[in-house]
Amino acid sequence: IKWMNYVTDGRFFTVAADLSESINVEHGSLWGHYSPTDNPLGTRLKAPIQEAGNVSTAIGLVSQSASVDPEKFAGVWALSGTYGAFTPLMYTPARVWSQQNQDSKFRMGVLHILAAHSGPETAADARTHFGIFETGVTQLFPEGQVIDLHPWEYNEVPVVLAAAFSSQVPIVVLHLTRPAIEIPDRVALGIPSHLAAARGAYVLRPFRDGPPKAGTVYVRGTMATHNLLRVLPDLDRLELNVKVVAAISPQLFATQDRAYRESVVGPADRLDAMVVTNGAFALMRHWAGGPRVREYSLSADWDDRWRTGGTLEEVIEEAHLDAGHILEAIRRFAVERSQRLGALRDDLESVLGR
After folding, report:
1. Considering only the top CATH level, what class is 2-175?
2. Are 131 and 84 in contact (CB under 8 A)?
3. How far is residue 299's CA from residue 220's CA, in Å, rounded to a whole number?
4. Residue 134 — very low, low, confident or very high, per pLDDT cuts 50/70/90?
5. Pick from 137, 119, 123: which is nearest to 51 by CA?
6. Does residue 301 contact residue 131 with C-beta atoms inside 8 Å?
7. One-letter-per-residue 3-state SS of the chain
8. Beta carbons of 311 and 121 less than 8 angstroms apart
């Protein structure tokens, strides 16, 4: 946030109530709390615990422009944040803002929503605060009205934000989890630089030469990705020839050139696929589809039940996102490929036989 205030000349406001410290925006202001009399340069607004009111304040700020040129915006930037579980409280103001922005003849600012502490990684705060299904409200907009960002480690955050800021999409939602995982040594792991996240998706593990290709695994979320990377050596040892794709942002991915998109996600990759995600399975609809995908996938709602609470390790295991469950799921996915494709073939033949 300090960087954002630096590049915007101190015009990036935050409205986050008591969660300002928890979601790491409290110290982003260069000049502290705003006061019209004592500190007019402040960009951190004091706010009540009221998500709808706070996001409405942010909308009020970014909807004002002093520019007489309709193609240029001259105003402030603003962010409102809360637990991912409470983002539905922000939906109605954000929806109306999207409609207002769509019809405006003047370019307006960007509403930033920080959906923090999302997923079962929130652990000790229990299921009232997890945000497994709730963040799906950000998908309830027309295409092109929202950019969802799901970086899985710290270094990807500024990269995806910079990519999103280069667009004119009126709402940017940054989905973050709470555990402070160890920053990966990407060179040692043989995975692409964090800069690849700017493209919305990238291949963490390509198909290997030799063994038959066994399908594509899409992964999203901090602990889901962290634990999948832990089993990469086991995939080689067991000759499980799957491609692994980091699913960061479907909207950023859609802006890439066709050659890049098809090198990461081709038509076959959407059907011959499984997902590993810290969110609900349905929220991965942009990446994989087909009647057999969920049967082989791992998601925080794998058994259609609310998760409970506990330590991080306990909740992640209950969500089947620990390394053991991930390896077994990928093994089954790869080994049963002929059955999976046979079922798809039967489905197609039943349609063609009508």
Report:
1. alpha beta
2. yes
3. 10
4. very high
5. 137
6. no
7. CHHHHHHCCCCEEEECHHHCCCCCCCCCCCCCECECCCECCCCEECCCCCHHHHHHHHHHHHCCCCCCCCCCCCCCEEEEEEEHHHCHHHHHHHHHHHHHHHHCCCCCCCEEEEEECCCHHHHHHCHHHCCCCHHHHHHCCCCCCEEEECCCCCCHHHHHHHHHHCCCCCEEEEECCCCCCCCCCHHHHCCCCHHHHHHCEEEEECCCCCCCCCCEEEEECHHHHHHHHHCHHHHHHCCCCCEEEEECCHHHHHCCCHHHHHHHCCHHHHHCEEEEECCCHHHHCCCCCCCCHHHHCEECCCCCCCCCCCCHHHHHHHCCCCHHHHHHHHHHHHHCHHHHHHHHHHHHHHHHCC
8. no
Q: Decide the pairing of beta strands 298-299 and 243-247.
A: unpaired
Q: Sign (positive/negative) of CA torsion 79, 82, 87, 93? A: negative
Amino acid (1-letter code) at residue 28: G
From the candidate CATH numbers 3.90.1140.10, 3.30.70.3340, 3.40.50.920, 3.40.50.720, the one assigned to the domain spanning 186-352: 3.40.50.920
Residue pair 148/251 in contact (Cβ under 8 Å)? The answer is: yes
Residue 29 has what pLDDT? 79
Please state, in angstroms and rounded to a whole number, the distance separating the CA atoms of residues 30 and 32: 6
Handedness of CA 300, 24, 166, 70 (dihedral sign): positive
pTM of the predicted structure, to 2 decimals: 0.93
Burial group, residue 168, by CB count within 10 angstroms (0-12, 13-18, 19+): exposed
pLDDT digits (tens, 9 = 90+) for 38-48: 998 888 888 88
Distance (Å, whole) CA 147 – CA 112: 10
Residues of the chain with CATH 3.40.50.970: 2-175
50 backbone φψ class: left, alpha, beta (φ>0; ψ -120 to 50): beta
Tokens found for residue 241: 């020839």
Which residue spans of the chain are classified as CATH 3.40.50.920?
Answer: 186-352
Q: How confident is the model at residue 3 (pLDDT cuts 50, 70, 90)?
A: confident
